[in-house]
Amino acid sequence: MSIAQNTETAARLRCIFCGAAPDCAGQDFRCTACGDLLEFVFPGWISDSPAFDPAALKSLWLNRRTSRNPLDQSGVWRFRELLPHIPNPEEHVITLREGNTPLYRLPRCARATGVENLHAKHQGMNPTASFKDTGMTVAASSAHQQEFRWVACASTGNTSASMAAYAARGNMHSLVLIPDGKISWGKLSQSLDYGALTCQLRTDFDGCVRILNELVRQRPVYLLNSVNPYRIEGQKTAAIELMEQLAWEPPDHIIVPGGNLGNSSAIGKALLEMRELKLITRLPKLSIIQAHGANPFYRSVREFGGKKLEPMTADTLATAIRIGNPASWKKALRVLQATGGEVEEVSEVEIAAAKAEIGADGIGCEPASAVTLAGLKKLRRSGFVKSGEAVVLILTGHLLKDPDFTIKFHRGDLFAGTGDAAEAVQAKSLQHAPVVLDADLGAVIAAVDAAERNS
Amino acid sequence: MSIAQNTETAARLRCIFCGAAPDCAGQDFRCTACGDLLEFVFPGWISDSPAFDPAALKSLWLNRRTSRNPLDQSGVWRFRELLPHIPNPEEHVITLREGNTPLYRLPRCARATGVENLHAKHQGMNPTASFKDTGMTVAASSAHQQEFRWVACASTGNTSASMAAYAARGNMHSLVLIPDGKISWGKLSQSLDYGALTCQLRTDFDGCVRILNELVRQRPVYLLNSVNPYRIEGQKTAAIELMEQLAWEPPDHIIVPGGNLGNSSAIGKALLEMRELKLITRLPKLSIIQAHGANPFYRSVREFGGKKLEPMTADTLATAIRIGNPASWKKALRVLQATGGEVEEVSEVEIAAAKAEIGADGIGCEPASAVTLAGLKKLRRSGFVKSGEAVVLILTGHLLKDPDFTIKFHRGDLFAGTGDAAEAVQAKSLQHAPVVLDADLGAVIAAVDAAERNS
């Protein structure tokens, strides 16, 4: 089943701003003409030909689920017809069996929001526990195919964890650059375990990015920050897999957390490409939710009509989206406009309450993921989402990425001493700290009865 | 495809010691005649009939992978022909899409151990990040089918996390009993997120179990500790799925961490049942590895020929197997003997080194999982495992279950101040703590070059 005239040459890089089409990307993945981001386009796709059969493609992808080929078992490479081609994939593709993530109904959240048809696609169920793996398998494989011995990124969180795992798997060295003094040991445990070289630089985050860009120009080190367009391609597969799980019947809304905006861009790109290939016949509205303390994209759209983005100093407990200058904001703006989606911002207390509500449905996620439910509530109030519509929330990271947040929330310590004290009362009913009791059956029974009464 | 004369009545409970066959289990899942554990047996299986076709069963299970039925998408319920029947499964089965865990090659560990054909089955890739989910889906579904409103366990770790998730998913309340003062907040973050009622009792762990057993006799609360035989049944599916992944060609060895010994028992039970049903034609040797500081089963076998087990005060950093009085030791002894497996014990430093070596292969696991690789090294040295043999390690929990261990190891703090200082040198070469540098390209390049030289 081929959908391209020549799969080997089907994918081309193009600048998202000036349209320049470089033959190959520079080491920093920036347009040499204007400095903007690059993206993959597929001019060779022959979806207009009568020979092209979307049903055959769907059937091919489904049947790969019964295969023992590692490429087919990956929830990313199973959809390789829509990805840049990696020559000799058996040799070069680095896979940890990423993707294949569950789609869950959220019955309690559905009742709470009045949206009966509500699902969550949990990208936190990836091997390193965040959605980053789906993009990393593609970008790391590209590095391997190009025979790089070193890969690198500036990140203290999910990206470095994912990069270090795929680098180790592909027998490559990995380098993590982080600002000195802003190290989060918990977040780094994964990079350390997978053997990354971690350098704390006496500078800020932008300083790390600057050194990294110099490094990749001077040394054969492959850049795996989110400007790498291979990562966006891999992250597309979450949307393809979602459509397959919904029997190719798109929901009315897909709601995505907005941080660096690479994920929103990827999911939107997949939706547009699937429509082009007649895999789906209509587009869901893709909406993007940011934390109030890290809302440069929200302000760009609401205040400046998307004409510019003012970087800010980001501050939110949802660390995975604590980003003040999102690299992919122009790509995200394009999919927002193309799908007719909305932007929203939510408060810290709204995030914490939404996370607890998702947890009460038996689904654990990190705080950044919970902005989707908090945003849905606001989109319901504004009337943008209607009760009869089908909604899918994209959860991006696992609960275990940030256990401290959960513990502090339930102990009532999360908003202690902050100006949010009044708002915090709203979340109080969702908290259930441990109770200390004598080793006495009657005391336990009394606690059980009290919990039953309060439920 | 039926393998029983009557699937509705195929599963029967039987006491593992006296053979008594109660019609239904008591609330504490103990034999009313002798007090020992119960297990499920399947007297209705008709594997001797010419009408029974193992190949058809394998094909049925494989094809379920392409189904959208939630039961088929579960890596547990996909194999429901080998599980106790739950009436009205569409209504009562609580699933989080557990199972479906990856089987990874371990190329570096293979070189280090001289076992070329070495795989790890990573049960830490389950929804709540440990193998407990595979058993919990079956036991929690049974509770739901029996219309319990409350489920309970005594545990501070992986069991309570899994129980709380499935209870929330099934709209049941969950109760966690833990000894006061021995609370590990990190481990409890999942139970809190999923809304469990957590009671810290002023007693020790045995005291908690005693109160729990009283509670389930007096109140309609369903016991989800590991004595619950439904949990063992669900955990069997890891072995069935493994055989499918290996094209039903059993490895020579399966190596399992030994804590409470329910998991070893389940995997061994599955192997014996698969041979009975002619799904496999020979048995792998199932070996069980304990931490030296929590080695009651190792001592039982080595010192007492399995005739008795002396409980001990357990002490190991591999908290998931820090168990001094394992509930399922008789079941585990039976499968050890039936498969011709071996027991081994490993030191704290051996565990930490093995965990880092698995990490260097791009696979993150919790410390308890790493005893398998550490044990394999000893079994190689003793000659029990030969270089040409095929070996599968069962990894039971995800790296993110215990990030502190990883951080302390790489910073060199794990064995600081302990008597293990000399041994710790052995693990030193695997450590790579972050380095602090000026924001200078030359400094970063020097660090990269140094890392390259040392690799």
Describe this structure as you would to a colleague.
The first copy, chain A, has helices at residues 54-63, 70-73, 89-92, 107-113, 132-145, 158-169, 185-193, 205-218, 229-235, 237-245, 262-276, 296-304, 329-339, 348-360, 367-381, 403-411, 421-428, 441-454; strands spanning 12-15, 38-41, 103-105, 118-122, 150-154, 173-179, 197-202, 221-223, 253-257, 285-291, 343-346, 391-395, 435-437. The first copy, chain A, is of the alpha/beta class. The model of chain A has no long low-confidence stretch (mean pLDDT 93). At the A-B interface, α6, β6, α7, β7 and α8 of A face α6, β6, α7, β7 and α8 of B.
What descriptive keywords fit this protein?
homodimer; 455 residues; six-stranded mixed beta sheet; four-stranded parallel beta sheet; 18 helices; 13 strands; globular
In terms of topology, how is this protein built?
2 copies of one chain form a homodimer.
Chain A: E1 12-15, E2 38-41, H1 54-63, H2 70-73, H3 89-92, E3 103-105, H4 107-113, E4 118-122, H5 132-145, E5 150-154, H6 158-169, E6 173-179, H7 185-193, E7 197-202, H8 205-218, E8 221-223, H9 229-235, H10 237-245, E9 253-257, H11 262-276, E10 285-291, H12 296-304, H13 329-339, E11 343-346, H14 348-360, H15 367-381, E12 391-395, H16 403-411, H17 421-428, E13 435-437, H18 441-454
Parallel strand pairs in A: 4-12, 5-6, 5-8, 6-7, 9-10, 9-12, 10-11
Antiparallel strand pairs in A: 1-2, 3-4
Helix pairs in contact in A: 5-6, 5-9, 6-7, 9-11, 10-11, 11-13, 14-15, 14-17
